[in-house]
Amino acid sequence: MSEINTEYLQRCIDTLEKSYLMLQEAVKDSIDYELYRNSLVKSFEMTIKQSGKLLKKKITPYFPSKKAADALPFKDIFRYAHKHSLLTEEETARWMKYRDNRNSTAHDYGQTFAEETLSLMEDFLTDAKNLKKVIDNA
Q1: What's the predicted TM-score (pTM) here?
Q2: CATH assignment of 7-136, given 1.20.120.330, 3.40.50.300, 1.50.10.10, 3.90.1200.10?
Q3: Helices 74-83 & 89-104 angle (0-180, nearest 10)
C-alpha cells in the first residue's frame, strides 16, 4: 500500500488547535472571540472532512475494489475502521458524534452550535491527532 499524505490533515489540526487556543484567550463577545470561534468552526469542519477522506484511503485495501470503498458514507468509513481494529469502539462513537455536530453547521451557524462545538474540542483534538497516527502507520 502506498503512503497516504497527511500534510494537509496536520495543517487542519494545527489551525484548529491554534484557533482554539486563541479563542480561550479572547474576551467573550469581542470581535476577536467571534473571529477565532468562526475559524475554529471552519477548521473543525475541514479536519472532519479530511479525516474521513484519508481514513477511506486507509481502509480501501480491506475491500474488493476501490469503487466499493468509495461508495461508503462517512460514518461507515469509521465503522469499518473499527471493524478492522484501526479505531476503538469509544473513538468510533466520538467520531459519530463529531459528524453529527458537523452536520449541524449546514443548518445552524449560531452561538449555540458554536458552543456545542467548543465543548467537543478537547476530545476532538486528541482523536484527530490519534487518527492521523493511524493513517500514517502503514
Answers
A1: 0.89
A2: 1.20.120.330
A3: 170
